[in-house]
Design goal:
With 166 residues, this protein is an all-beta fold. It contains no helices and 12 strands.
Length: 166
Amino acid sequence: ETNNSGFEILRSTQEDDWRTLAFVPGFGTTTEPKSYSYNDETVTSGKYYYKLKQIDYDGSHSFSDVVEVDISLPTVFALEQNYPNPFNPSTSIQFSLPVDANVTIVVYNLVGEKVADVITGDFSAGKHKVDFDASSLTSGVYFYRIDATSSMGNNFSNVKKMTLIK
């Protein structure tokens, strides 16, 4: 790398209306191999186009080739393991819906008592992530359950175990 200020990450849905998503700083001038990455967490299903604008400290720039990415909807309902696990005091829960659905996620203690409502509401088809703050709970093992019901009569329930360590 020579004189590398960094990279603008650009995205478009039509290959002509480019919008800047983020800037990833460069390493200036170096002869050592460097690695860069960026995760676009804002996409839903559809076709997207990406390119990089590499910018030097003097303002000169060049563009990478365009990369096309096709994001498809999930084909099945799924509840992922929370992350991190064990956690303190918050964790993320991800789930996938192949169709629009009303979703409820509830947390239970070991004896089956409901101790928290994580979410209740309508969600569109796709992948979703919700954060759960367990700061009001004590250390221990808990279970979280998802119930999803679509307007087409599809029902999904699943349970996963998580551990809170304070």
